[in-house]
């Protein structure tokens, strides 16, 4: 009778063939590739109001090749990126662990919403980013977020900036791969960006009136609707910022913008809050003004009010 050996192994059952990760970052590391551009964030050590405290979010989607993802907060110290903390609790914001939701593509999510007031309190000012530590059936890998420069809030330091907040649902394209999409499901995922050298201003109004004409020839209005428009100007930004704005931010379900320019004409009198937390929708095309040889392009956009209650009717 032949003798032999029995070998036992544990296998992870996957419902369909896994796709090998491409290993690419979501966005370029602008400390290396766009050294002169900065994404600012501001916060207060003693919180007073949301308007003075920024937040930022990261969210990645993973197919069935992945078995786990961890998140790390890194700081740029003495010329290199250094891990300072694991992002696995509420110390720096709100944690969304790997697998916290599954979309219609059977991808699971992992993310974090950074509260910069908490980061400032624990770590102080500095340049930060989020790094993933991913485990999949082919090995391990990493992705990197945008990089943010955190400073304490003051009315002087936020001058010449605007802040855009948005909430995303449903399916949108992936700027990094034309063949892919991102499925946010019904997450209503929040994100926010602040931009230097930008301005939200120049309100104009258009009017649409309906009339009825009497037998004597007199025209009397029966409906009078006012539509307000605003101009947004961004004076120079690299391509990946334009991709983020045009490919995600401005396609979101809800968009809110605030202007922090001290010389905005609408802000000068009595600190008029007209351009703070304004709910808007894009009403123009997105056409950056590129110049050959430059890494930066300006863009001018037109927005309208998301809510239009300026409709007057005769009783």
Please provide a written account of the structure.
The chain is 7% helix and 45% strand. With 315 residues, the chain is mainly beta. It has two domains: 133 residues, Immunoglobulin-like, CATH 2.60.40; 157 residues, Elongation Factor Tu (Ef-tu), domain 3 (Beta Barrel), CATH 2.40.30. Strands 10, 13, 14, 15, 16, 17, 18 and 19 form an eight-stranded antiparallel beta sheet that branches. Strands 1, 3, 4, 7, 8 and 9 form a six-stranded mixed beta sheet that branches. The radius of gyration is 24 Å and the shape is globular.
Q: What's this model, at a glance?
A:
The chain has three helices and 19 strands.
Main attributes?
Elongation Factor Tu (Ef-tu), domain 3, 315 residues, 7% helix, 45% strand, 19 strands, Immunoglobulin-like, mainly beta, six-stranded mixed beta sheet, eight-stranded antiparallel beta sheet, 2 domains
């Amino acid at each position: 009778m032949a003798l032999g050996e029995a070998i036992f192994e544990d296998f992870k059952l996957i419902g369909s063939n896994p796709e090998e990760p491409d290993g690419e970052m979501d966005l370029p590391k602008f400390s290396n590739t766009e050294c002169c551009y900065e994404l600012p964030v501001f916060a207060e050590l003693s919180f007073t109001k949301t308007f003075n405290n920024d937040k930022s979010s990261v969210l990645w989607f993973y197919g069935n090749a992945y078995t786990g993802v961890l998140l790390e907060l890194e700081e740029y110290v003495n010329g290199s990126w250094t891990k300072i903390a694991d992002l696995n609790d509420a110390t720096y914001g709100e944690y969304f662990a790997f697998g916290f939701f599954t979309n219609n593509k059977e991808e699971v999510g992992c993310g974090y919403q950074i509260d910069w007031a908490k980061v400032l309190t624990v770590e102080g000012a500095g340049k930060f980013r989020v790094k993933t530590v991913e485990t999949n059936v082919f090995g391990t890998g990493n992705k990197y977020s945008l990089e943010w420069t955190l400073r304490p809030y003051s009315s002087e330091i936020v001058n010449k900036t605007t802040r855009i907040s948005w909430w995303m649902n449903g399916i949108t394209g992936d700027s990094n791969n034309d063949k892919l999409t991102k499925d946010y499901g019904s997450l209503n995922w929040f994100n926010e960006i602040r931009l230097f050298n930008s301005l939200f201003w120049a309100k104009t109004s258009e009017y649409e009136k309906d009339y009825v004409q009497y037998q004597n020839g007199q025209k009397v209005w029966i409906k009078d609707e006012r539509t307000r428009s605003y101009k947004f100007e961004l004076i120079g930004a690299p391509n990946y910022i334009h991709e983020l704005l045009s490919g995600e931010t401005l396609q979101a379900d809800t968009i809110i913008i605030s202007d922090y320019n001290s010389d905005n004409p609408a802000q000068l009198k009595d600190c008029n809050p007209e351009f703070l937390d304004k709910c808007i929708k894009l009403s123009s095309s997105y056409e950056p003004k590129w110049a050959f040889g430059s890494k930066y392009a300006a863009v001018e956009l037109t927005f309208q009010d998301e809510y239009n209650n300026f409709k007057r009717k005769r009783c």
